[in-house]
Specification:
By secondary structure, this protein is α+β, with helices and mostly antiparallel strands. The chain is built from two helices and two strands; from the N terminus they run H-E-E-H. It has one domain. A hairpin with a 5-residue loop joins strand 1 and strand 2.
Length: 70
């Protein structure tokens, strides 16, 4: 897995390295950061306002073994 670029890391904050982030791309080329935790916990917004600097649900992607989909 390639680490997030520094520009992406700064624009998304913690989400860039969180195992609960899923990148969603639409047909017009827009890219969104979706929080998978929102599916089971109402405390987390589906599409959080970026950059996320603090999050009680944050889990490091590297520690959890999850990978980002292409």
């Amino acid at each position: 897995m390639t680490p997030p670029s520094s520009s992406r890391r700064s624009s998304t904050g913690l989400c860039a390295s969180c195992r609960h982030q899923r990148i969603v791309k639409n047909t017009r080329g827009s890219v969104f950061s979706m929080c998978e935790r929102s599916k089971t916990d109402d405390r987390f917004p589906k599409y959080p306002r970026l950059p996320v600097l603090e999050c009680v649900g944050y889990e490091d992607r590297a520690a959890g073994g999850a990978t980002e989909p292409d």
